Prior knowledge:
B: four-stranded antiparallel beta sheet
Amino acid sequence: MEFFRIKKDIPFMRHALVFNAISFITFALAVFFIATRGLHLSIEFTGGTVMEVEYVQSADINRTRTTVEGLGFGEVQVQKFGTSHDVLIRLPVRDDVKQTEVAGRVFTALCAAESGTVDTKQYVTPQGEAVSRPSCSTAAGAEPVQLKRTEVVGPSVGAELARDGAIALAVTVAGIMMYLAFRFEWKFAVAGIIANLHDVIIILGFFAFFQWEFSLAVLAAILAVLGYSVNESVVIFDRIRETFRKFRKLTSLQVIDHAITSTISRTIITHGSTQLMVVSMLLFGGPTLHYFAVALTIGILFGIYSSIFVAAGIAMWLGVKREDLIKAGSGKEIDPNDPNAGAVV
Amino acid sequence: MNRYPLWKYAILAVALLVGLLYTLPNFYGEAPAVQVSSGKATIKLDGSMATRVQKLLDDAKLKPDFVQFEGSSVKARFNDTDTQLKAKDVISKGLNPDASDPGYIVALNLLSRSPEWMARLRALPMYLGLDLRGGVHFLMQVDMKAALTKRAEALSGDIRLVLREKNIRHGGVSRDGNTVDVRFRDAATAQQALGLLTEQFVDLQWAMAGDGVDQRLTGTLKPEAARRVQEQAVKQNITTLHNRVNELGTSEPVIQQQGLDRIVVQLPGVQDTARAKGIIGRTATLEIRMVNESAEAREAERGAAPVPFGSERFVERGAAPIILFRQVVLTGENLTDAQSGFDSQTQQPSVNLTLDAKGSRVFKDVTRDNIGKRMAIVLFEKGKGEVVTAPVIRSEIGGGRVQITGSMTTQEASDQALLLRAGSLAAPMEIIEERTIGPSLGAENISKGFASVTYGFAAIAVFMCAYYLLFGVFSSIALAFNLLLLVAVLSMLQATLTLPGIAAIALTLGMAIDANVLINERVREELRSGAGPQQAIQAGYERAWGTILDSNITTLIAGLALLTFGSGPVRGFAVVHCLGILTSMFSAVVFSRGLVNLWYGGKKRLKSVSIGQVWRPDQGAVSDAERAPSTASSVTPVTVNKA
Lengths: 345, 643
């Protein structure tokens, strides 16, 4: 099998202007949505309480909502989570309520709404582990609603996490930029980092537009995909440098086209296989990994696009020349037979 | 040319073996077990408890897989839950004769089923994070300001005392935040005091200021002293938490410092946050009382007479009864520190107590009036008191520094000091993050994470094998080897596996295949431009290496940033991600090359390699003409020959 049977170099750069315009519009839209709608930050960043409860019957969202709202904890969000039996409840931080008691009170109220009472259930699992957990039981002995998970984050922790996340992002960007500048030269470093920041902004734009929950896991996904797709630009830049060395007669434009054409097969296959794994996470990973996988998917798709069109395009606008990459007079640098002369795909 | 020397194969074989050995314990699952831990701060478990438990089980004709003492608890593993439940009853009855006042916590638990010889090689399964096995997680903030204030308060009391002892008249000692102010009427006294205080209180930095009428000495805690106070506060709180958490009988409680002033408490298997919080937040109290040594009390001690009026019966650490007066001389609040040490004259081990100003005053009066009598230090936990030590008063003790010596070993002295400190938290704590994960959710998360990795891996392997044929098979085997190594390394490090960690494994595998795609594409390209099979393999691997290194470095930069600045779940992700990048470089390049060399390396007249169809553009096409110089460079045999 061979997917890519390319006879001639594809003139990518001929349409660079169009693609750059598309990129710019997407980018502007992303910024617009982030600015107007904002990110729907998870409680890890904002502080608050999240509870996941499971009903035996299909959950009646409205009844749950009325019950929780009746407690007067301010603006609560109640939504289905994964299956129709699972409900996710989000409660904001309130100064007048002790945060660590909120979950217990909500569960007691939900239990009462199912005409049950909360007590502590102690039993030994078939594997032989002693478990003691609060459970809701009715007079008939049934357990209409179960507390699956609670998460309480204080407001100070949230602010800290948000700050640490921003620092991690800045350090990653700076680190990669330094690496690119060291490995190539500043024009490529700038082009590479703009291309990939453009990806980051677009992922954020998607999260802002759809109001998907932005959690720590999503942030991790963004950083991972940033490191991963910068590499794509590295490969193309490497090829550009090599092509400049080998084909002295080609113009910068032709060189870039050639470099992209000869790496496109590898680009699509590697990103495709990574995406296979991510799709598997999307399908089987359940609701917890859902947005993590979504962020990776957007990141990977735009990573391909931006390394090809944005990074190379910007390098072109910045006026990459043969002289930038191959220093005159250095015989070693020009030697096309040097096996260490840059990585080649 | 494509041959590895023997030692390289040997290294690969060893890596494979070690990988298998350390990955294996993860597949044994868990067996029911019974865990015995101390139920009181005054009881300490040691190796002899294992023998005791073993004997109890032998007497009941129950056969455990093993009984072992580890850390601060004794664990016995059983084959089935029936035996486990019976064993729990037997051990419980044997160790706690008085069920209403249990000295030991006997709890049901799970232990890895892996054989003992593996455990001896430290081949243990990974810890499962709370999100995979259920449990509660607390993040507690230690109030450092309170710890510092407490220290400054104690110091100002000591300063008053020292000045009085040396007969230096002062116009008042006051504490303002973390600084201590001492006022003097005239400069000469202030100067004299400055010399004394600088010498006696090395933790404070003194500054003199005068405002015409008064001279003022201001002592500020030195930064290193403040740091020490904070470190000790966190350490003491952790010790106290350990003692309390033991009571829950969880198998692997995690109590760790996080950052400068935070403590993480993770209790696997516990769902009952209310109870956990109650236990964590409980305060034990310490009281000093006089021992009733009258004749009636002696009788009462032996059980021959009723306890005299105004007295109470207690148990001393070795279970000997002792009669104490009800009247409390001092409480733990007046005790600022307890450390073990040595008597400066006799070199006997000692426990040194430091009392605050009020405590020292009371203590001085009491000791003066009761020379030759005994006093007792009682630790109250869960409403029950137990005498930690009951020394005889030898002389009047002033100055708030109390030394207890007697026939005890250094170990006993440090245990006692720990007990005296264990009563209280050095600084108040507040829960700032709380997470509960139900057991069913944990199991669900495991199966979902597992399914993601399995199906993703399978999809990649199928694609690689279909697209690159035999080279695809090699790549897939190398990817499997990568997974094996990664799990082995995580097990070796005893890392905690969480759901984000599993996601990182999946993602790392998805990214690791990149290296093999690079190599395979490169080999194809070499073949396309007319290189011989052996040369193509050689050149393909050599030339792809630079790009692989590049791609891994950029990924690693992001991974390290996450590791440094991430917290909680993100850290779990970052650790696995970074380790995965490292193992993937080894497996994708060295290991897959080893496979290729093993298969093709020996074939001298190799006509073709199975790497899928290599499509060539028509002869004379533009791109081919362009490639001419490229071909020349590719065919040039690369002289780096490893064979």
